[in-house]
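Hi L.,

As promised, DUF721 domain-containing protein:
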Amino acid sequence: MKNKRANEEQSMKDLVEMFKNKHRLNPGLDKVDVENAWMTQLGPAIKNYTDQIKFRNTVLTVHLSSSTLREELSYGKERIIKTLNESLGKELISKLILR
């Protein structure tokens, strides 16, 4: 009787993906990735006015302390969503709500 595990080779990436799926970690990790993408892609000026970021069910809700900035960003929502999804490497965000 051969040891089945000794004959199977898997990459570390595949093993991590299996672990994340088995323990249902993807939603939490996606949330962290989206928050990090917001902070890095939009820069330090917008980061300073960002009070709260929530990501749930493909909807990103961002609370901003500046109404002027909120209005300016609302004109480019589609571009922001596209930029964030490109930096994440997958289509996670389908809607952006600015408050």
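Helices lie at 4-7, 12-22, 26-41, 43-49, 67-74, 77-88.

Thanks again for sending the construct details.

K.
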